[in-house]
Amino acid sequence: ADLRAEAAAAARTGQPLIVIYSRDDCRFCQTIKREHLGPMAADTQRGKRLMIREIGQDRDTPLIDFQGQPTTHAAFATREKIKLVPVVAFYGPNGRKLAEPIVGARLPDFYQSYLDDAIEQASRKLKQP
Fold it and tell me: Is the peptide bond before 86 cis (omega within 30 degrees of 0)?
């Protein structure tokens, strides 16, 4: 994955790059991906498809960061100060943070509202210089 290129591509559609930070052993992460992020990524009714990527806090998978530098998933998560997962973060070009990240599973019945609100906030901020 190339976060710099993907954030720029998402911004061209007026959307943030959505990144979920997870671990393989995190059942809450699996639930959020299955019940919320997966369906959102597949939903073409939203107009423009959302770009959602996953960073594995426990993985050494190669990654290009927002500055175009090679790193790994684990190193990038550490640099972003991710301690507990799941975390869903919203980025613009060059790694600009567009909304407060959603940390933890929170209240399951309201999780979709948290996501929708954060995406709307991030999309508005993306349009600001």
Answer: yes
Domain residue ranges in the chain:
3-124
Residue with tokens 């954060």: 118
Q: Does the reported pTM lie above 0.90?
A: yes
- Characterize the bridge pairing of strands 70-72 and 87-91: unpaired
Mean pLDDT of the chain: 92
- 3-state secondary structure labels for all residues of the chain: CEHHHHHHHHHHCCCCEEEEEECCCCHHHHHHHHHHHHHHHHCHHHCCCCEEEEEECCCCCEEECCCCCEEEHHHHHHHCCCCCCCEEEEECHHHCEEEEEEECCCCHHHHHHHHHHHHHHHHHHHCCC
| Contact present, 110 and 122 (Cβ < 8 Å) | no
Q: How many CB atoms lie within 10 A of CB 64?
A: 16
Range 81-105 average pLDDT: 95
Classify domain 3-124 by CATH number: 3.40.30.10
Produce one character per residue of 90-106: b if its CB has 16 or more CB atoms within 10 Å, e if not: bbbbeebebbebbeeee
